[in-house]
């Protein structure tokens, strides 16, 4: 892969050096993200006038059908809303760790930086256990558990559009016998005291959902609690907040593991803590 990239970069530079002012050639993106057949390019503002041509050249040389301009991810559904620079079809199937993820890359977040966590979830799951994924997306974290470990999964996703891909992915990966999807706000999910494992793959406001996760969990269960944490509060956070809220709801906690997923913003990290909870 690295070798391919080394060959691609000079080729792109060579083509565009005939078309761009010389001072702009050095500002061409040196890194990009490829999800299935869709490319996400970080483009600097000074390249605005040339953005469509640049996208076309990257698409042709790398071999992508569509190119998007990297932008901000935001809102309750963590939508991307990336600008389409080249091509039109933003839906693709991305294969990672033997899992087929179909998604609309222009609208739905799929972070390459979370790959380790998606792989790790396949490793920690146990055959037959019941996993409730409270923020399922297109099955980012829970498909690997159902596919590779034979875990039973209840996947809850609030956005109707993202949910439509979640349902397709359950079919695509042949796990309809053990994975069920619900299009609802996880706060309205009626299941109580059912899960061996709960996934809380969300950021910024995840702590607000801890009481619900505890009510879904069995009296003894493991919760994978993600959140964004200012660096100055680490390493005490985010476990301290989880522990406090769990205690208020009658649970003891044991921290099993803690990992940094990625930098979320300057001075803010996306962290995951694996917590074993016991009802007192
Ligand atoms: C950031 S994505 C993460 C996907 C995956 N869990 C991961 O960590 O890679 C979070 C997903 O949770 C969904 N979501 C947000 N609030 C929700 C809620 N209250 N109930 C169910 N789904 C929700 C969003 O629509 C989005 O698809």
TrEMBL record:
Catalytic reactions on record: 4-demethylwyosine(37) in tRNA(Phe) + S-adenosyl-L-methionine = 4-demethyl-7-[(3S)-3-amino-3-carboxypropyl]wyosine(37) in tRNA(Phe) + S-methyl-5'-thioadenosine + H(+)
Residues holding S-adenosyl-L-methionine: 111, 118, 157, 185-186
E.C. code: 2.5.1.114
Keywords, comma-separated and alphabetical: Cytoplasm, S-adenosyl-L-methionine, Transferase, tRNA processing
Predominant location: cytoplasm
Subcellular location: Cytoplasm
Cited Gene3D superfamilies: Met-10+ protein-like domains, Vaccinia Virus protein VP39
A molecular function GO annotation: tRNA 4-demethylwyosine alpha-amino-alpha-carboxypropyltransferase activity
Entry-linked InterPro entries: MeTrfase_TRM5/TYW2, SAM-dependent_MTases_sf, TRM5-TYW2-like_MTfase, TRM5/TYW2-like_N, TYW2_archaea
Enzyme class: transferase
NCBIfam families with a match to the protein in the record: tRNAwyosTaw2Pyroc
Protein name: tRNA(Phe) (4-demethylwyosine(37)-C(7)) aminocarboxypropyltransferase
Organism ancestry: Archaea, Methanobacteriati, Methanobacteriota, Thermococci, Thermococcales
């Amino acid at each position: 892969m690295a070798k391919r990239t080394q060959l691609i970069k000079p080729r792109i530079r060579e083509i565009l050096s005939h078309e761009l002012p010389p001072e702009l050639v050095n500002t061409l993106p040196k890194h990009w993200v490829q999800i299935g057949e869709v490319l996400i390019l970080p483009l600097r503002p000074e390249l605005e006038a040339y953005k469509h041509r640049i996208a076309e050249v990257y698409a042709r040389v790398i071999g992508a059908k569509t190119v998007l301009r990297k932008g901000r991810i935001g809102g309750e559904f963590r939508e991307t809303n990336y600008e389409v620079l080249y091509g039109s079809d933003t839906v693709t199937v991305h294969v990672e760790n033997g899992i087929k993820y179909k998604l609309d890359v222009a609208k739905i977040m799929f972070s390459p930086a979370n790959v380790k966590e998606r792989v790790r979830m396949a490793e920690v799951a146990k055959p037959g256990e019941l996993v409730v994924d409270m923020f399922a997306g297109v099955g980012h974290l829970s498909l690997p558990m159902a596919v590779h470990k034979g875990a039973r999964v209840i996947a809850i996703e609030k956005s109707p559009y993202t949910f439509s891909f979640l349902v397709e992915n359950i079919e695509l990966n042949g796990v309809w016998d053990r994975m069920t999807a619900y299009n609802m706000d996880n706060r309205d999910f009626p299941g109580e005291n059912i899960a061996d494992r709960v996934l809380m793959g969300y950021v910024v406001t995840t702590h607000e959902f801890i009481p619900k996760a505890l009510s879904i969990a069995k009296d003894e269960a493991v919760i994978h609690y993600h959140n964004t944490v200012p660096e100055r509060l680490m390493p005490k956070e985010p476990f301290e907040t989880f522990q406090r809220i769990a205690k208020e709801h009658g649970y003891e906690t044991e921290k099993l593991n803690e990992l940094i997923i990625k930098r979320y913003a300057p001075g803010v990290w996306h962290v995951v803590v694996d917590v074993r909870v016991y009802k007192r």
